[in-house]
Amino acid sequence: AASFESSSHRRNWLRGKREILNSNAEDIIATSADEIRRLRLYFVEIIHTLGRALRLRQRVIATAVVFFKRFYLIRSFGEFDPRVTAPTMLFVAAKVEETDCRAQKFLNAIKENQRLSALYKGTDLTIDKILHFEFEVLEALEFDLIVFHPYRPVCMILDEVKQNKMLQMAWSITNDSYRTDLCLEYSPAKIAIAVIYLSLVLQKCSQVDRERFLKLAGIGEEADVQLVLDIAGQLLELYRYYSKVGKGKGLPKDLPPSDAVALLKKLRDAHTSLKEGDKPGSVGMDKDEMVVKIENAKIASGGMEIERVVPVGGAGK
Length: 317
Prior knowledge:
This protein is mostly helical. The radius of gyration is 20 Å and the shape is globular. Helix 5 crosses helix 6 and helix 12 packs antiparallel against helix 13.
């Protein structure tokens, strides 16, 4: 696609907040919204780990994460093992971003990385399995493989408003945005503006400077300002989440592989029970309880106070 406005990304893969929050309902029934959130974040970290082990560019990794999020927007963890999905998404993303990376390299990288090898122990991941699952992925994604990212808009806007000194922090926050579902809800340009706005906040720039930036970026209407604040709020909520769970050494990246495997087995068993005709109550929850759990998964982004936070991702390009 020549532009985002005419792309399948905009046409087919920007969804409403409610649809995003209601995804993985089957998985939430089997465990909890918080556990599913942690699992999603854990496999985003796994994609980053594998991507770095393969020396893939940040754009390839980001594209793989977007594919991963799109896939599980309409599929369940109980039915499709993310240990297969994650490397397949990287494999497809490498092709889309015209990066040479043979499937055998993925298997070698997993074997040679201690963290990855522990997670994949006993999965019998093979080249054939990745290649076969590639077709499942393409079908689920409806062959919409064009992904627009906020990286370019961030650079262009910073250059236009003469704030290039903010690039490193803005780049790190952009990387962190892929740990949220912002890529499923907002355009890359709006995410870029919110990222720069948040960078100004974290650099303790004055309210006057922040408002001036929004004007220069073409954000004048109250609805547009609120949209930027909503995006920034979701990013802040991510940092608060990492700060909260980090105090108890519960960061998603620190999830022991054995715990991840146990949770995946629980989800797979629950999916099997449902597939065989059991009702949701058979896995310990009635319909009303399911609704409550889904509602509790909502992102508390509205009305947040701005506070000092530190981006969790790197600034790698």
